[in-house]
Amino acid sequence: GINAEYGLKMFDLNTHSETVVGSHNDAITCVEWNSEVNLAVTGSWDKQVKLWDARARECVHTSEHPDRVYTMGQVDEILVVGTGGRRVLVWDIRNMKQEAQRKESALKFMTRCIRCFPNKQGYVLSSCEGRVAVEYLDPSPAVQSKKYAFKCHRIKDEGIETIYPVNTIAFHQRYNTFATGGCDGFVNIWDSANKKRLCQLRKMPTSIASLCFNQDGTMLAIASSYTFELGDMEHPPDQIYIRNMTDIETRPKNM
Predict the structure, then answer these.
(1) What is the mean pLDDT of residues 57-85?
(2) Could you give the percent of the chain with pLDDT greater than 70?
(3) Which parts of the chain fold into alpha helices (H)?
(4) Cβ atoms < 10 Å from Cβ of 139
């Protein structure tokens, strides 16, 4: 967990007790647990990514980044970090002395979310300007030619198009399809291999702040929470919905 004092906390579900693991020098924006090395990983506006031994409450490694850390995605040993300045750094979490790749986002506006494909072939990146990019890690020209970006989470009304930030991405672990959630209150499910939208779920009361599939992809947790994209204003209460998902909604068309 994260608190406002730049600290990382661990919550014990059995004893309902909290333990402070450590802290950054500015707000922590993302936290992950990496089972490959059994360490917690945090990213912060202080331009650092830290690895933590949660039981020992000890920081075991700190990596400096070129700008504020906004988001992280990971799968096994692969850690992909999105920072300010549209930078993307790819790390092997087993060797954090030097990044494996340093790239620039294919999208022109600020990065909101990065999530890695479960098959480890690449990652999906979203921006504050209603776009998503599908990127691949293999640097060969043949593989890089497959990358692409697309517009989404945009609503047209009487000839005027409103463009919404894409706040969150979640992968289906079996099918490599993924969900996106935006400030338009919608959740879309995408088949990246066939470049198709599989479905759109009913509109939620306010912005979609976070999404997460369960391990077999039969349920999707949806956090509906105003993200202050229009400033301080009256808004619906925060809610978490659990949506049962069917294969028709999440499975690629060619399977």
Answers:
(1) 96
(2) 98
(3) 141-144, 247-250
(4) 9
